Amino acid sequence: MCGRYKICKPVSKTVDIVKKNINVEDTDNYNAHPSQKLPIIKSYSNGKALESYEWGLVPSWSKKIEKFSPLINARKETLMEKVTFKNLIQTSRCVVVADGYYEWAKKEKGKVPYYFTKEDDEIMFFAAIHQNNQFCIITREARENISNIHHREPLIMKQSEINNYLNIKKDALETLNAIKPPELKFHEISKNVNNPENNDPALIKPIN
Length: 208
Hints:
The protein is mainly β. The chain is built from 5 helices and 14 strands.
């Protein structure tokens, strides 16, 4: 699961990727969380655009359910089995821009937060789907060196793989399965990240 992440200067970091910026500000967000409007990359016939969509997807059928929690993650392995995701992965793909993400490990002292980044410190691109100005991040089974923290991780692609993923003429699962996860590094951080109102550089500072 991916429930929080960091993204700073999204406009500057995607200026060579997108053709148009649609009302996205070049701000610093150290605690991007569900229900927030966050930068994603979408593809149009005249090129890619950077837009702000709300994190958390609400399917039309859920309106009949009281207190439905928006879907923030979708498992790659069951995308084609779930009615909610099957059509979206074939028609409505997008890419989430991030610097790193947070995950929590269950330990005797409670849940302990960690901050994950790419080994090369380059920007991350999460595979995602969208609907009605909302998005949902696709996750995959975590690799062995990460699974002791959490059993899932976001499906991270290279910049060179963005065009292929956004091309809806390409088979969805074939495209996703061809994406190899990058090497990641991580460290324990303060539990201050648990409060979404906390948003500053201190959140990613190692505590060890």
